[in-house]
């Protein structure tokens, strides 16, 4: 725990996200976008606009590691595999033009 925050290893984080996605789908979440937290949606928009992890970290006053964790969660929840897929998803979703 650091500064009142709980930290998980990348492996534990991945397992938690997988369980969250499974449970949300079981409950009938229709659009995978709804699986994203408010912060993940914010980072998705910024990533789709072409910003780097460093730029996002500076903009949101968070660590690069935190950005990378959110980015990995976004990819997992939306079943995306690379930045090109993320940008295409954002365009199709109408998040960017």
Question: How is this structure best described in words?
Answer:
Helices cover 64% and strands 0% of the residues. The chain contains five helices and no strands. The protein has helices at 10-26, 38-48, 53-60, 64-78, 83-93. Helix 2 packs across helix 4, helix 2 (38-48) crosses helix 5 and helix 3 (53-60) crosses helix 4. The chain is globular, with a radius of gyration of 14 Å. The protein starts with 9 loop residues before the first helix and ends with a helix. The model has no long low-confidence stretch (mean pLDDT 85).
Question: Which ranges are low-confidence, i.e. pLDDT below 50, for 5 or more consecutive residues?
Answer: none
Order of helices and strands: HHHHH
Rg over CA atoms, rounded to whole Å, is 14 Å
Mean pLDDT: 85
The percent range for helix content is: 55-70%
Gross geometry: globular
Decide which structural class fits the backbone.
Answer: mainly alpha
Q: Indicate the proportion of strand residues.
A: under 5%
Please tally the helical runs, counting DSSP H or I stretches of 4 or more residues: 5
Main beta-sheet strand count, sense and barrel state: none
Number of strands: 0
Amino-to-carboxy terminus distance = 40 Å
What's this entry about, in short?
This protein is mainly α. The chain has helices at 10-26, 38-48, 53-60, 64-78, 83-93.
């Amino acid at each position: 725990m650091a500064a009142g925050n709980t930290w998980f290893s990348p492996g534990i984080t991945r397992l938690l996200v997988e369980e969250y996605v499974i449970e949300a789908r079981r409950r009938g979440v229709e659009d995978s976008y709804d699986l994203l937290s408010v912060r993940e949606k914010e980072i998705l928009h910024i990533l789709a606009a072409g910003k780097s992890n460093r730029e996002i970290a500076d903009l949101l006053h968070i660590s690069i590691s935190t950005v990378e964790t959110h980015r990995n969660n976004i990819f997992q929840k939306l079943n995306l595999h690379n930045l090109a897929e993320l940008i295409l998803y954002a365009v199709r979703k109408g998040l960017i033009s």
